[in-house]
Amino acid sequence: MDPTVENTPTDGHAVETATPTIPSATPTRTNKAKRNYRTKKRDTIDNEHDGDEEMKDDSLTESTQHSQQPAANCSNLPYVQSQNAQNIGEVYPGLARLSFLDQDSGVEGDKPEQEGSLGITRPHRPLQQKSLPLQQQQQSSSTSVEDEGELTISSQPVVETLATPPSTSPSVTSSGISSESNLIEIKDTALENKGRGLFSAAKDVLKAGTLVFKEMGYCQVVNDASLSSVCSACFKDTREEQGEDEKSASAGGVSASNQRKLVRCAGCKVVWYCNKTCQIKDWKLHHQLECQGIQQSMKNAVMKDVWTKRSMDTTTVRALCRMVRRRERVRTSAAYKAEHKKMDTAQRQVNEVYYSGLDQKEEEWLDEHGATWIDRYLRAPANNRDVSSKGVLDKSTQFTKIMAVVMSCVVSAKEDRATFMRGSGESTGEFEDASGTKGFELLQKLLSYGFSVTNLETTTAVGLALYVQSIPFMNHSCLPNCVYTFKGARVECRVIRDIQPGEELTISYIDQIGTTQERQKQLKEQYHFTCMCPMCQYFPANPLIQPNQDALLAIIPEPAFVPLLDPKQGFICPNSDCATRSDIGPILAMESQLAIYNKVELKCESCGQVAELTQEIVQENQEDAERIIAQFVRGMNGASDQQPKSGPRNFELAKVKLPETTDENAAEEARKAAAAKGGMNSVHEPSTAALQCFDEAYRSLTGVAPPQARTKSRQPTRSPMDINEDPVHRSALHRLVRQLEQTGFDEAVSHKNWVFALHRSLELERILNNTYIGHHPLKAVQGYYTCKIVNLLANLLLEESTIEIEESDHGQDSDEDEEMAGNSDDERDLKALRDAMGGGSSTRSKGHGTGSMQEQLLKRKQAGSAKTEGEAKSKAATKTTPIKRIQTEASRQLLVYLKSLIPKIEDPTLLQQFRVCWGKDGKLTNRYRYQVDSLKQALYYAELPFQETKL
Ligand SMILES: C[S@@+](CC[C@H](N)C(=O)[O-])C[C@H]1O[C@@H](n2cnc3c(N)ncnc32)[C@H](O)[C@@H]1O
Questions:
Q1: Is 356 in the pocket of ligand 1 (CB under 6 A)?
Q2: Where is this region: Disordered (predicted)?
């Protein structure tokens, strides 16, 4: 069967294209404003589809006769060893032009990666393998990976490594490491129950920022929720693209309506692709069999509901089906290779180009050896009650349902199903066909080792993948030295803290935000182990265990920030006359006891007061606090605490106006009055009611008054969330404050209250910086927020300028204006900016003040040149021309903020930090570029100088 994209109504199904959903500035987890437009015609689909809707062209027919990749020197050894990758053109003549490998030095050249175009990635210099005994044996005797024995686990770290996977490790020269060395090796850890781990095999320190490896999955699928917005071949997220599109549209670029749409496979009507190229690529690798399987499954009425009505989530089902199906190709690969040899050069090149050089080699390796790696090196958990390869299955479990659907796709004959479950291949070690696979064991492995593929920008999960080469061997640490990110479905692992030779490489499996107890609970529930990483030793969850500060300092000898307190401390005597604060010990004991006994007696060491605390009380407190926080957030956004708003309110700052008065005192009074009832001009400051809410929450959680009385003032003195200065803060408070910031941010964005959003964003950043050592993925998310906000604020600044111009028509008192303008350098700067903007503004008509961004920009440019001719002249004009200033605190703060960003993006050290997170071998990544571009744009609007540091 040929892959087809749906284009005409068939079987009563409407023709569909999916318009991607719009991401909010926050991760999709909290995005409530998704929209998914559907159109009847796919007339705006990528040009590649024009006139070729059914995708039954010759090349496809040709390629689908051979459902697998072309052969090229597939060996059981990793292809990096067998391929002369220094001249990829020799291996693939048609791909020579696509190679950006610097053939002399092995370092990457200057050409950009060809992401997105046929999924072509730059080939990397293969690693020279270390002469380890096992590998030597393999090389000299050409022994296949299948011939190797199981790894033996000893309590001592062993020196043997597994058969080397087709490592895609990059050039290491940028990190100063000899290219002769291998970067990583898999070996047993010292702890028996921890199993194996990934260790540095480099001779030198692996520097922060080093890309240690990247690898493709054995199988990967887009999750159900993202099917119509994420391409099932390249994992391009069209929601992300739409966000970019909006950004460029707002900056005068391509209109958002030109966004790309996905097309759906007309065969199974389940998966979606960018275009024909992506569809063909996936077809050859996975979808041909998957498509047949789904259609076979749909013949059963119950299963049909699963696929058409999504009566259950099919993500795991589809991943497992791909896993099972791919195994079958081992059997046919010899025949396929023979077939491939018969092709003429042109055919081969057409075939090969879909796989793009190194990808193809990796896919071939996975085809031939992935199954063996899964069988031999990935371990099914022994203690999983729900999924047992031998025991009786509880039919009601989710796993059983998954297996039922999987079997309906991959096993056609009923009698084969028992074999499939049991695994006939177990005795022989051969896997001849789908009925020979051990279905449940594969499911176990998928559940244990499967990775959630996330969107880099939004950190939203978009798919599920099973990797077999490197990342599945990485253990968890709450203080990891590596992070992993995704490019499409390809996972990349980077060092975030210098790693010593021989040190284990670790990642964090979970959100690092929680307390030790919370983290350990989640790890226990989800991954069935108790973490004993340096962070857990530094802040032990069990009060009987002494904190081990050396554990932390051993791995970070000179930490930039050593946490003095775990964000979970502070026990206050319930006797209000005493209110003595406890130290960390009793608190930890209390939390642990509560978890175990659900009840704990607290006795104050100072006054002897005893109080009983139960989980329920804690829960109630928590709910109370959350309610208060919600109120607080509403208050911060200017909503009345008495009358919770029913839907989002529009607080566009451009509409914010001060009372029409020239009397400063009266204006201040009016401001206060408005603020007291959550009025419009309080958008950048919390209302009195909101502050009270926060104080109440703080008191209920800590038992003491907030560090500082929070009275309402025009000049906000201190953030009400400034809890880090107070030595007494408990986990709940910390968590809630973070939640508050997060909720506040989301809320503020939904209200278009950019200034408040900026405050929340900066506050989140501060809290994260003060709480977590080293890099934290949330900081990256934070950076994303900030740069989005900068963009938004830049627009806001323009809008405000527009309003000012409009207002100036009325002719206002210049004294007040002059007084305000003289308050600070920032104000003077902004005033100069506005003068430049509105030179002669008093004579402009109202209509001229408004306009598109481009018009504003043009006016700004013209005005800018006028400004250079004589700022003094302009200033003098200001004195004589009465202008009513709608100079809000927002504008002032924006200017201050923008100014503060300049050194950040001009400072090479800070730039280096960006690169640690996202950079790659001296090149700016798209993310960084996006940040810098946003900042440049904002600075340009604000007419602030900006000199980007050349790297
Ligand atoms: C993806 S595997 C990592 C590789 C694994 N060690 C192995 O030998 O296959 C995840 C499993 O490793 C173990 N593990 C990972 N991190 C650990 C840690 N910090 N402490 C103890 N066990 C850990 C757990 O059993 C977990 O389910």
A1: no
A2: 1-75, 104-179, 706-725, 806-882
- Look up residue 507 and give its two tokens: 């990642």
State yes or no: pLDDT of 431 exceeds 80: no
Assess whether pLDDT exceeds 90 at residue 917. no
CA atoms within 13 Å, Cβ hemisphere of 684: 21
pLDDT band at 790 (very low <50, low <70, confident <90, very high): low
DSSP string for 247-269: HHHHTT-S-GGG---EEEBTTTS
* Closest-lying ligand 1 atom to the alpha carbon of residue 533: 19
- Phi, psi at 505, each rounded to 5°: -90, 130
For residue 830, give both structure tokens.
């902004």
- Please report the pLDDT score of residue 104 as a whole number: 26
- Confidence (pLDDT) at 346: 53
CA 254/CA 275 separation, integer angstroms: 20
Q: What is the pLDDT of residues 204-233, one digit of tens each?
A: 998 876 788 889 999 999 999 999 999 999
In SS3 terms, 342-369 reads as HCCHHHHHHHHHCCCCHHHHHHHHHHHH
Answer yes or no: is the C-beta of 472 below 6 A from any ligand 1 atom.
yes
Q: Provide the terminal-to-terminal Cα distance of the chain, rounded to the nearest Å.
A: 52
3-state secondary structure of 197: strand
Residue 902 pLDDT > 90: no
pLDDT tens-digit profile of 129-165?
A: 222 222 333 333 332 222 222 222 222 222 223 333 3
- The mean pLDDT value for 32-37 works out to 24
DSSP symbol at 284: I
Give the DSSP H/E element, type plus range, for residue 425. Answer: helix 425-428
- Placement of tokens 């207002």 in the chain: 807
Q: How confident is the model at residue 651 (pLDDT cuts 50, 70, 90)?
A: very low
Residue whose entry in the numeric block shows the structure tokens 């051969």: 430
246, 232 Cβ separation under 8 angstroms: no
69 against 758, higher pLDDT? 758
> Within 13 Å and on the Cβ side, how many CA atoms surround 585?
5
What is the DSSP-derived secondary structure letter of residue 473?
G
* Residue from 446, 476, 507 whose mutation best tests the ligand 1 pocket (most atoms within 8 A of CB): 476
Helix, strand, coil percentages, rounded to 5, for the chain:
50, 10, 45
Q: Which of 885, 834, 892 is nearest to 716 (CA)?
A: 892
Query: Nearest Cα to 451, choosing from 220, 212, 166?
Result: 220
Residues 257 and 250: their CA atoms lie apart, in Å, by: 12
Query: 703: Cβ below 6 Å to ligand 1?
Result: no
Q: Which stretch of DSSP H or E encloses residue 462?
A: strand 461-466
The 10s digit of each residue's pLDDT in 433-447 is: 343 457 888 888 898
Distance between CA atoms of 361 and 352, rounded to whole angstroms? 10
- Assembly ipTM: 1.00
Query: What pLDDT is recorded for position 20?
Result: 29
Instruction: Tell me the best of 189, 194, 474 to mutate to test the pocket of ligand 1, counting ligand atoms within 8 Å of each CB and taking the most.
Output: 194
Facing residues of 215 across strands?
491
Cα distance between residue 278 and residue 272, in whole Å: 9
Residue 872 contacts by C-beta under 8 Å, 6 or more apart in sequence? none
Residue 527 Cβ contacting ligand 1 at under 6 Å: yes
Substitution candidate for ligand 1 out of 447, 527, 528, 535 with most atoms within 8 A of CB: 527
- Per DSSP, the chain holds a count of helices (H) and strands (E) of 34, 16
Q: State in Å: Cα 131 to ligand 1 middle.
A: 27
Q: Which atom of ligand 1 is nearest to the CA of 477?
A: 19
Instruction: Please state the length of the chain.
Output: 951
Q: What is the largest CA-CA distance in the chain?
A: 96
Please give the Cα distance from 277 to 461 (Å, whole number). 24
The H or E element that residue 273 is part of is strand 272-273
Q: What is the pTM of this model?
A: 0.53
Percent of the chain predicted with pLDDT > 90: 10
Answer whether residue 495 shows pLDDT above 70.
yes
